[in-house]
Amino acid sequence: MLASHADRERAVDVLRAGFAEGRLEKDEFDRRVGRVYAARTVGELALVVADLPQGPAPYPAPVTPVPQVFLPTPRPAANGKAVGSAVCGLLCLLTAGLTGIPAVVLGHTARAEIRRTGEDGDGLALTGLVMGWLSVGGWALFWLLLIAVGVLDR
To answer: Which of 13, 26, 82, 93 could disulfide-pair with 125, CB 3.0 to 4.6 Å?
Structure first.
């Protein structure tokens, strides 16, 4: 069925309400309003406002579902241990290396979980591992040098 001016204005009202409630960003609101005024059928209008509360005059359900291409792809959650590893690794600078070992342990555990579950956060785990190993290696080198200097002074 062809859309009338009243149908378009109802769709714009739904968009305005969604924007006022914080459901839409300004640029998304502007794009959708442009699509509403370019729509020729009621079905096209329904697609533009399908994910918003419809208000008092709902449009009929769209005949065709929204194509998968237009739907956002779900992003996997970041692994919590990877985040912890990155935080501990970065805190090595402030804690004089005390968080180096937890960064390494959490980093290795997180990378194993990420490979197994497909979660996001491999870069965070790797950051924690690098910072942790640098801290642990730096402290080990410091103590070895300190012992060597102590032994040679005798």
So the answer is: 82
